Amino acid sequence: MKFNFKIVISILLIITVSIFILFIIKKNINVNQNKNSVLKIVERNKFNMTSKKVLLNNGVEMPIIGLGTWQLTGNVVENSVYTAIKNGYRLIDTAYWYGNEENVGASVRRAISDGLVTRKELFITTKLPPYGFSDYEKAIDDCNERLGLGYIDLMLIHQSGSDEKKLYRAIENKIDEGVVKTLGISNYYTKEAFDDITSDAKIMPAVIQNENHIYYNDKEFQEYVGKYGIIIESYYPLGGRGHTNDSLNNDIINNIAKKYNKTPAEIILRWHIQSMFIVIPGSSNENHIKENINIFDFELTDEEMNRINILNTGKRYENW
Ligand code: NAP
User: Fold this and answer.
1) Is 284 near ligand 1, meaning CB less than 6 Å away?
2) Cβ(212) – ligand 1 distance below 6 Å
3) Which residues constitute the domain of residue 294?
């Protein structure tokens, strides 16, 4: 039989193209099924100002205000966490990078053993960077061990990085095992970055923790991820350490504060939760900790919300 080189090449080409097309279709079906499955939950995730919680796209309830613990260590963070829980906070935000997971865990255990709260009522977030580890499932187990609270309510990928897909997969696996309850990402600001990290996700993120404050909040991005029922959690809610005066001294904020007999911090934090952003102001000052959760006895009007919304400059303080 005469060997026809052209026919063989054509057949090989057709097979390769078909396999490629099938691969793309399968990948899209998986992602779309996954994305569609969270769409129906979107209408449910309104902020409940009485329970101070929101229902996430995975069916878990998350408190809408918490304590941030960046730059707080040792006794300082232990006292802050205890004070926060004593004053009604149920969400605590820590991270591997903050070097304070053990202190946060110890303080939470003390609050539980003193009868202030139960483990189930609390929501503990930690974060891992997507680089520097050879085994991400072990890295998550180590966070869990340092915290010593049985499980992690929310595990965030701290920022993008070379191993982000590996860490994503590890969090998904730890959700299957019950070590982690909810998956989230942090410092993802563009549609492209979001689409990339979720391109072959089995579980969509429920929360994106980003820099977000009166001078930076990206409505277009919020709407894009909002289609999947994803909630934005604001870090630097008061502008962040070193920048809080920009926010707290703002004239519009101060005028509104006078009207309600509230502090500028309370007005800003109320604006966050009325915008459906979870907030985690950081503080080691007992009076500030008490003040920051005192935001459920008044409501900003639509006009006041708009006056604050237009302060957005579209510029972040950080570029990580
Ligand atoms: P922030 O909450 O915007 O600001 C914290 C600063 O505000 C502190 O200096 C605090 O000082 C002051 N403050 C708090 N309440 C106040 C009040 N009522 N009146 C006046 N000043 C007040 O910034 P942040 O702590 O950097 O961010 C919040 C949390 O987000 C962090 O703690 C951390 O958990 C998280 N975070 C995450 C990332 C990320 O990459 N995912 C990055 C940064 C932060 P006092 O201690 O004196 O109250």
Assistant:
1) yes
2) no
3) 50-309
Within a domain: residue 168? yes
- Domain match, 299 and 224 both: yes
Residue 20 in this model has a pLDDT that exceeds 80: no
129 lines ligand 1 (CB under 6 A): no
Residue 278 within a domain: yes
Q: State in Å: Cα 318 to ligand 1 middle.
A: 14
Q: With the CA atoms of 103, 107, 109 and 115 taken in that order, what torsion angle do they form, in degrees rounded to the nearest 10?
A: 180
- Same domain (yes/no): 288, 237: yes
186 shares a domain with 142: yes
- The total number of structural domains in the chain stands at 2
pLDDT tens for each residue of 219-263: 999 999 999 999 999 999 999 999 999 999 999 999 999 999 999
Atom 27 of ligand 1, nearest CA residue: 236
Q: Do 198 and 286 share a structural domain?
A: yes
Examine residue 318 and state whether it is found in any structural domain, yes or no: no
Q: Which one of the listed residues 89, 96, 98, 216 is annotated catalytic? A: 98
Domain membership of residue 226 (yes or no) is yes
- The structure's pTM equals 0.89
Kindly state whether residues 20 and 145 are assigned to the same domain: no
For ligand 1, say whether the CB of 240 is within 6 Å of any of its atoms. Answer: yes
Which own/partner contact pairs does 114-119 have at CB distance under 8 Å and 24+ positions apart? 116/85, 116/86, 117/85, 117/90, 119/149, 119/150
pLDDT (average), residues 208-223:
97
Report the share of the chain in percent with pLDDT over 90. Answer: 85
The answer to whether residue 98 is catalytic is yes
Structure tokens at 53: 């919680």
